[in-house]
Write a structure and sequence with these properties.
This protein is an alpha+beta fold. The protein contains 17 helices and 26 strands.
Length: about 800
């Protein structure tokens, strides 16, 4: 018998130890306008945080007389007249600010088919959605601080490396020399819709941007279709417009057609999920980034359904990665340390809408797509429910992230850290009442899930503001050198020092001789030259003294430096030995930690298995206990019924036995009467005279029958004994001896009273004892009745 499972009692809510380290998932609601003024609606906006949903007039509950209005609360509700700018400022702008500050974020739209999810994410011509506005804000903020191409280089393990300017230049030259892949016509031209979408009038940006960092933006675009991941930016080695089959009539596969390959999910060293082999493009402007998005959007799977003209048949995920690293101490080049690189990520997800096949009339591939979409959304809902239960009640249930690629990809957001925002898009028309009701319930439940708050990245330890401070210092130094006659227009520093040195000498007088008898010009010149010579000699002496002093100081400094160098070398060797020992100890501890982590993981899994077994056994024990209790109660009721049946049966058999005993007694009495009658006849034969003719027994019995039946027989003397079988036996103590001669053994006498011979008494006694000795003994199985048996002794012959 299968045990009936019981729901275990939920424990008391567990209070978190650090409530400030977690933030709830931000859930926002956006109501789409109705298609026409005469269309019936079922959703109303009550205030900025509450919406009310009521069943339409033709709904079954309303027809039965039960009119229920349900209100749902959100962080903020956006009505039908809210613009994209207001929605972006409230929902997406904080996520972009966190992205630039090195923190992760997730934003996804959720709702039924035709509720406006893609419009909210992408926008329309002239009114861009959340995605182009996010890109515009990112490049407006980091525009003057962007690194050159290929300074940051992504690896295949969800990490990033930094290159020097020379390696980046070589990489750029190598990429420029490569042939450009063939792209179908029209891909290089900017779509008018594309141009209108990125033409955002409000140029918003993040105010607090670290100016001492350099930034690079990488984008990727994937879709999850039928629970498979495909790269929408992957360069196809074939023309997409080529047919899959060569001829329509013959099923011959086209050799040029190569179907896209699905991608796999992996986990990096920081336990973040990523798509292996996904194309990640480095972009430098909003136009370039949105062009990459538009190229992938053209490949995304859409179809025409009964509810939507262009229904998304897959989940689209646009990932923006921002790599940033600090500048060196001079503020000129990127710091060549991988540990200083920060890689943040913002995921913008356009979920496919849940739908009912009885409304869309889907068949074939559309039916399969709808089933996979609903299955992935159901898995997302299950994960949210399990997370909510684990956080509210302190349970440790396993969250089924791996049941769907969608939930497995965003596992690190819910189990790790980062901000999570969800926009619930609803269509207020009456036909979507049931679907909208389920969406509202899921959204209200999602608000109770908490996600770890992202931590601030550590500082690099260098002087802040070094980029512009060093630049300003160099400009000021060049200006002062120019004012003091410093090097300018390509002059060297040695030439400048020589000119400054010559300016300290007295100027030379005029050397022109105007007359032959001029005796003043040459003496003045000689005097000036002598003064300059003396000054030169003095400067040379002072220079020699300074050189000697400097040489002595330099030698002393050199000796001190050498001694200090030896000391430092000794200390350094000691430190290196210490560091080597610490490294070995650290490696040993790391190995031990890995071993312990592995053991802890095994123990946690074992504990989980044991807890599940314990829970199942407890449930089984409870069911068995209830079963035993029911069986005990059934046994008591059955015993009570059996006691009544036994008592009734005992009474019935007791009466039956009394009746049978009475009947048997009457039968035995009748048999005893027959025996007595036979004995009386024997006595009469023995005792009556011989000359009298005996009367026939039948006549005598007929005559005395009324008298015998009216008189009860006299009891027969005897002893009663118990037998082995539990019965009773009777042994008669008095035996009657009847004497009678055989009619063939003696002569018939003619006289009526002849005298018997002398030995007649003996012979008669012998015959009577031989023929008439009778003993009655009680034994089972007697034909005469219970316990009666006739025994006759063998006849003894006379000698």
């Amino acid at each position: 018998m299968k045990a009936v499972a019981r729901t275990p009692r939920r424990p008391a809510p567990k209070k978190p130890s650090h409530p400030s380290l977690k933030d709830p998932v931000g859930v926002y609601c956006r109501v789409r306008p109705l298609s026409g003024p005469d269309q019936e609606g079922c959703i109303e906006v009550i205030n900025e945080t509450t919406v009310q949903i009521h069943p339409p007039d033709r709904y079954r509950i309303f027809r039965n007389g039960e009119y229920r209005e349900t209100q749902y609360s959100f962080k903020e509700v956006f009505g039908t007249l809210v613009a994209q700018k207001e929605l972006f400022d409230v929902v997406a702008k904080p996520l972009v600010e966190d992205l630039i500050h090195g923190k992760n974020g997730l934003l996804f739209t959720y709702g039924v088919t035709g509720s406006g999810k893609t419009h909210t994410m992408t926008g329309s011509p002239g009114d861009g959605g959340l995605l182009p506005r996010c890109l515009d804000m990112i490049f407006n903020s980091i525009g003057p601080f962007q690194a050159k191409r290929f300074v940051f280089k992504l690896d295949d393990k969800n990490g990033v490396d930094v290159q020097c300017e020379v390696d980046a230049l070589l990489e750029r030259q190598k990429r420029d020399a490569m042939p450009v892949p063939k792209i179908p016509s029209g891909k290089r031209q900017i779509d008018p819709e594309f141009a209108d979408m990125i033409n955002v009038q409000d140029h918003c940006k993040v105010e607090e941007v670290d100016e001492d960092n350099v930034y690079s933006v990488f984008v990727s675009y994937i879709e999850i279709y039928n629970n498979y991941i495909y790269d929408l930016l992957e360069e196809a080695p074939f023309e997409p417009i080529k047919p899959k089959w060569n001829n329509c009539n013959t099923p011959v596969r086209n050799g040029d057609f190569i179907p896209p390959q699905s991608k796999m999910l992996r986990e990096d060293q920081n336990h973040n999920m990523y798509v292996t082999g996904c194309t990640e493009v480095e972009v430098k402007s909003t136009e370039e980034a949105f062009e990459v998005f538009w190229r992938g959007q053209k490949k995304r799977r859409i179809a025409h359904t009964q509810l939507n003209r262009e229904s998304s048949r897959s989940h689209g995920v646009f990932i923006i990665k921002l790599a940033q690293a600090p500048l060196d101490a001079d503020g000129d080049n990127v710091l060549q340390e991988k540990e200083q690189i920060t890689l943040s990520q913002l995921s913008l997800v356009d979920l496919a809408g849940s739908e009912r096949t009885n409304r869309t009339k889907a068949e074939g591939n559309r039916l399969r797509e709808a089933g996979n979409i609903n299955q992935s959304l159901m898995t997302l809902r299950t994960c949210i429910e399990v997370l909510r239960e684990n956080q509210m009640y302190g349970t440790n249930k396993m969250v089924p992230y791996r049941d769907s690629k969608l939930t497995h990809l965003f596992k690190n957001y819910f189990d790790g850290e980062g901000k999570v925002r969800m926009i619930v898009c609803v269509n207020p028309k009456a036909e979507d009442y049931e679907e909208s009701l389920q969406v509202m319930r899921f959204a209200e439940m999602t608000q109770e899930v908490e996600v770890a708050r992202p931590v601030d990245r550590p500082l690099c330890g260098l002087t802040p503001g070094r980029r512009f401070r060093n630049q300003a210092f160099r400009e000021e130094l060049s200006q002062k050198l120019e004012l003091r006659g410093g090097p300018k227009n390509g002059e060297t520093e040695e030439q400048s020092v020589t000119e400054m040195f010559l300016q300290n000498f007295p100027p030379l007088p005029s050397c022109e001789l105007l007359d032959v008898n001029d005796d003043q010009t040459l003496p003045r010149l000689i005097e000036v030259l002598e003064k300059r010579h003396k000054m030169r000699q003095m400067l040379l002496k002072e220079f020699g003294k300074n050189v000697l002093a400097f040489k002595t100081a330099l030698q002393e400094f050199d000796s001190s430096v050498v001694s200090k160098e030896h000391y430092i070398q000794g200390k350094l060797s000691e430190k290196e030995k210490t560091i080597a020992g610490q490294k070995m100890e650290l490696e040993r501890l790391e190995k031990k930690i890995k071993t312990l982590e592995y053991k802890i993981e095994i123990l946690e899994k074992t504990t989980t298995i044991y807890e599940d077994d314990k829970r199942n056994l407890q449930q089984e024990l409870e069911s068995k206990s209830q079963k035993l209790q029911r069986q005990a109660s059934d046994k008591r009721r059955l015993e009570a019924r059996l006691q009544g049946v036994v008592a009734e049966t005992a009474m019935k058999w007791e009466k039956e036995c009394e009746r049978r005993v009475a009947a048997k007694q009457l039968e035995m009495q009748n048999k005893l009467w027959v025996k007595d009658e036979k004995l009386k006849q024997l006595k009469a034969i023995v005792t009556e005279p011989k000359n009298e003719k005996p009367e026939r027994p039948s006549r005598e019995r007929d005559r005395e029958k009324p008298v015998q039946r009216s008189v009860s027989p006299s009891p027969v003397p005897g002893d009663v004994f118990k037998t082995r079988g539990g019965g009773q036996a009777v042994q008669f103590t008095e035996i009657e001896t009847l004497k009678q001669e055989s009619p063939t053994g003696r002569k018939r006498r003619s006289s009526p009273n002849p005298e018997p011979p002398e030995d007649a008494a003996d012979s008669e006694c012998t015959d009577v004892e031989t023929r008439c000795s009778v003993a009655l003994e009680m034994r089972a199985g007697s034909a005469l009745g219970p316990g009666y048996q006739h025994h006759a002794q063998p006849k003894r012959r006379k000698p």
